[in-house]
Amino acid sequence: MTLAADDLLITPALSTAPPPATAASTQSSNARTIWGLDPVQLHTRFWAAHGVQVVRQGEPSEIVKHAELYLLIENDALSLFKLGPLMEALNWVKPQVLFVRLHDSCASSACMTRLRA
After folding, report:
1. Which terminal Cβ of the chain has fewer Cβ within 10 Å, N or C?
2. Residue 97: inside a domain, yes or no?
3. Which of 87, 85, 84, 80 is nearest to 102 (CA)?
4. d(CA 40, CA 13)
């Protein structure tokens, strides 16, 4: 299955490593969050709201009972794409497993520019 470039956006995740101990008090106020969530947590919650459990490579993940789909993803990636075409394939073909490979068709700076515009 192929997704059009307009249906797909993959950006590298922002660093979520804890700040050094010496600058913890100054950088904690500068941490970028939305509703108290860092970008990776927000990404995970977005997909959970759509019934998708995000499983990051190399990180332990407990299976959520109400998850309908699983998104296996690299640690440093965030992805947004439309589920409609995938759900259509799942409903018509009824496969036991469906593998979809996402490709970033634009340079990361171009994607980030498109997001800011």
Report:
1. C
2. yes
3. 80
4. 7
